[in-house]
Amino acid sequence: MLMLPLKCITKTRAFLYPLLLSSSFSSAVPYPSFLSPASASIPSDFANCEPKEVAFSFKNWFKSGKNPLIERIFEILSSTDDEDLSSRRTADSALSQLGLRLSEPFVLEVLKYKNDVLSCLKFFDWAGRQSGFYHTRATFNAILKILSRAKLMSLMLDFLDSHLKLISVHKVRFYNTLVMGYAVAGKPDVALQLFGKMRFHGQDLDPFAYHVLLNALVEANCFDVAKVVLMQIKMRDCENEVTHSIVMKSLCKQNQLTEAEQYLRELLSGGRVVIGHVFSVLVDAFCTNNKFEHASKLIREIRETGKVPMEKSYAVWIRSLVQAGKLDNALEFLQTVKSLEGYIPDVFRYNILLSTLLRKNRLKDVYDLLTEMKEFQIVPDKVTMNTALCFFCKAGMVEVALELYNSRSEFGLTPNSMAYNYLINTLCGDGSIDEAYYILKNSIDEGYFPGRKTFSILADALCQEHKLDKMKELVIYALERNFFPSSSIYDKFISALCRARRVEDGYLIHGELNRLNNVSSRVTYIDMINGFNKSNRGDISARLLLEMQEKGHSPNRRLFRAVICSLCEMENPEKQFLQLLDMQLSRHNPETRIYNFFIDGAGHAKRPDLAREVFEMMVRSGISTNLSSDILILQSYLKSERISDALNFFHDISKRRKIRRKLYNSMVVGLCKAKKSDIALAMLRGCRENGLIPSLESYEELILLLSSEKKYDMVITLINDMEKVGRRVSSFIGNVLLLHSLKSRDLYECWVRSRDAYLETPSSSMLGQLIAAFSAQIRADLQVEDLEDAIQQCFPLDLYSYNMLLRRLSVDRIDGACEMFHRLCQKGYEPNRWTYHILMHGLYRHGRTAEAKRWAEEMFHRGFDPEERIFL
């Protein structure tokens, strides 16, 4: 037996038990729909109990229905190998040593004890071979019902046929048994034939067999033949309360409810004994026909007569109300008859109520009924135990559920599929993925396999926790049982494998998916392509790109770029590149978009020669090149730092089309990234001279490059030029200025020198004050809010701006820096690694080491690694 560690006790109790006192759950992990939050709370006296105490109490209750002697009988029988003669002899000997006193009641008790058809058959056979004991009508009928309920009709008929061939002095008893057997097995035609043979030989059925045959005919809707058999029963003066019950069933099955009610009243007025089953059949028929009001009135009327036992009718009424969705009416009725008449339902009725209440998340009512069953010492069956297990899962008391599960052999609990699903889902929601997986393996060993929803939940959890070997086993388990996971589960598994750099395994799973005619999702293809790109297998990436398009997914420019870059890192890249281009052109009508994708990819791979070759192919094919084509060729030259080629191509473009802002922007940005500030400045001036307003990106990249080269005079010139063309200082530019102001006084000094050259405006004046404050040229005696407002007037603040402000404040106003940290959090900004480092450095410089270490712990808790050298 698998014993699971209760490692989740401490971590679960801390947040799950308080939830039992509230009306809803709040968990970081979403629960599946059938594990959704409870609508009613659990009593505090129960919720505050230790898990072991609760589990011990329920284990003792579960054990109350266990009979050690009968348990031993089934243990012996279940370990017997029918094909091994010595094993059968050993089992016979072990049963004989128990000293059993065989009788009809004891044999019936054994047969009803456990739903183990094979063991029941073995015991029935063994008992029939013991000296001094003969099977009775009741024991034969019991084993036949067991076979019938298990739907083992072929086995049942073989059993009957074997008895039909026997020749015994007890022919009458055998014929009685056979007629009953075929009747119970749903073969009333065979039973009637045997009955005819009996009558031909002058033999007759006994009253019990007559009623079994009559009941089988009614069940088979053979109402005319049933009337003939009923006449035979009346002629032999064998009519009794069982007859009345079968007649009532016949009328109700024929939907003759008025006649059925009249039949009941005739029985009552004639002074006949009316058993509870007769009336319960009528109540059931009215409820089945949705005549609840009439059924309710009839129950009240018959109860007042005091002539009919009402327990069975109450049970049927409660069950019917629950099945009709009238759960509150059923509970109210139960409480009424329990308090007024002392009525206690049987375990089956309790189970119906429990399972329905559990589905509706009415955990308080489930708890009340379970407590009630314990108080009334109602012996729980397997359904009750499984429902209790599910209850603890749904109530968040997974420790109790695990304790009961681990102790299941002590009281004979066999978890059903619902209990397994609840356990696995709850453990996944609790983060106990390993325990959930081991319970799954145990359930498979016991013949259960989870439903699709549970399988999906566990698969998601395993993928999220990167337990990919377990996920692989789970998929194998599923396929071995002809259970085919959904495509989404495959996709998540493949993506998880790719992210874990096990792209080959993911590719194998993908092949299995193709074999099953399932199509991987677009995201899965992208994950596999990226995985093979990282493994320098561009050839497989290209193959997947083509397959992806065949399956109806459209790759974007970024994906093409990644595949082309990977191909260009392989041997003989030109061949690979052109083959992929040819295949694309053969599958799609040649269009500018496809050519541009390849120009873009070659440019990012720093193969401008390939990019230019594609461009020339377009021209030769008569495909019109567009502005994007020109820009992509320019960018390919600039990325490879082939500046002269870029300038020449730019000149060629000017002959073919009018140069627009996009082309200037591409040149300026590309030249800046190539560290060619002088040429970039010339391009920006050319843009202005042609009456165009440069893009904000052009200004940003130029100011960033010039600042890094400490050409602050040109930086100020560009800022003034931006103001002239109506562009505001962006957050990016503002942050660059603050950063360089913090590094040195040079920017501030250039700003002061520029006052005479440029007319100062309110916005430039405020920006100058900020540069002065951050250069420590004026005392930062403004309040924290004032500094924040000053930056806001110059440019929009972002987290980088706040980090710069923190750096400035941490120099001489560390308390102000701490205040600013809390302000940015209140405004909804999420501090990053640099935010914490700036604050810790400031605290350490001011000698507040203890506070710095506390912030380091907070930083580590947030998932960032602090630098050890801060504290050295």
From TrEMBL:
PPR repeats lie at residues 171-205, 240-274, 275-309, 346-380, 381-415, 416-450, 521-555, 591-625, 660-694, 832-866. InterPro entries: PPR_rpt, TPR-like_helical_dom_sf. Keywords: Repeat. The keyword Transmembrane helix does not apply. Transmembrane segments: none annotated. Belongs to the PPR family. P subfamily. This is Pentatricopeptide repeat-containing protein. The lineage of its organism: Eukaryota, Viridiplantae, Streptophyta, Embryophyta, Tracheophyta.
